[in-house]
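Figure 3 (text version): structure tokens given as input.
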């Protein structure tokens, strides 16, 4: 091994103890050349971070700062896990061989990866989606369902499970709301706005009677959003509706109804809603579940900053 590692890591400096460890991996554990190269590169990253200090002299604090450094550089969680495994293996070997008295990796922790950030639509995409249905009876139904989903952030099962008695219309200065029984049979009240109220009124007054037929047995259906047969809308059927309307709106990527729930939450948070209120509207048992949307807005702010600030990137002005 030769040469000083660069800022991003690579080949560690000549180090007898590193050489001993790699020799052990090659001879005793019979690791492949590719695996040895991976160990060499991972230790090279630690070497680059440590400056001129020998790796065997680093302590727990040094190693924790190294892992934090990797995390801040944006390395994937699996990559950080792999590097951590290489570092742990090296220090365990050095302790067993008497090069160090104690293993400093015993006290280090690896930051857990954030769960995958929810996908959501932009406000413009939402507007196009909501404008896609026509004024036919089923078009009025689809528009009302999409509007209600975006206005309330309900789960799909909650939306299709609504009955006419679950909806309370707006009165004077009191907004309309729906009563929902969600996960764990917990009931919550979620408000909805004027636009959703208008589309719901159109569906109930014009669309729903024509779909069910006046004076027919199915006209007495208690379901809010019915099919042509008078039954409740299924989750699978609504998924198909969302995809069809998305294609009509010219939204290039396919998405599920749950993306509208994510859009509801993200857009509310971006406009100043507090997490506790959002938690109640979404029906989350724990606010830690709701906090994922703060990562969504932080990611968006980061993109906006990188795109528009003249000195966001090195070498740009």
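Below: residues designed for each position.
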């Amino acid at each position: 091994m030769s040469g000083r590692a660069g800022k991003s890591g690579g080949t560690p400096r000549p180090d007898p103890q590193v050489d001993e460890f790699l020799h052990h991996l090659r001879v005793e554990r019979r690791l492949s050349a590719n695996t040895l190269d991976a160990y060499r590169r991972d230790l090279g990253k630690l070497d680059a971070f440590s400056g001129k200090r020998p790796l065997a002299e680093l302590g727990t604090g040094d190693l924790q700062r190294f892992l934090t450094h990797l995390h801040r550089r944006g390395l994937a969680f699996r990559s950080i896990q792999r590097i951590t495994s290489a570092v742990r293996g090296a220090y365990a070997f050095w302790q067993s061989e008497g090069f160090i008295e104690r293993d400093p990796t015993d006290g280090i922790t690896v930051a857990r990866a954030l769960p995958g950030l929810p996908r959501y639509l932009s406000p413009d995409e939402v507007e196009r989606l909501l404008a896609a249905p026509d004024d036919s009876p089923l078009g009025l139904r689809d528009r009302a369902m999409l509007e209600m989903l975006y206005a309330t952030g309900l789960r799909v099962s909650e939306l299709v499970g609504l009955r006419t008695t679950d909806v309370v219309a707006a009165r004077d200065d009191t907004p309309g709301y729906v009563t929902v029984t969600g996960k764990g049979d917990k009931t919550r009240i979620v408000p909805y706005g004027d636009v959703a109220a208008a589309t719901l009124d159109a569906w109930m007054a014009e669309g729903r009677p024509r779909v069910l037929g006046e004076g027919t047995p199915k006209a007495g259906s208690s379901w809010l959003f019915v099919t042509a047969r008078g039954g409740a809308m299924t989750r699978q059927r609504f998924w198909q509706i969302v995809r069809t309307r998305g294609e009509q709106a010219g939204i290039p990527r396919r998405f599920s109804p749950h993306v509208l729930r994510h859009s509801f939450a993200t857009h509310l948070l971006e406009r100043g809603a507090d997490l506790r209120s959002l938690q109640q509207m979404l029906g989350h048992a724990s606010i830690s579940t709701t906090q994922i949307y703060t990562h969504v807005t932080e990611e968006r702010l980061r993109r906006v900053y990188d795109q528009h600030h003249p000195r966001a990137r090195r070498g740009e002005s």
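Residues 1-8 have pLDDT under 50 and may be disordered.
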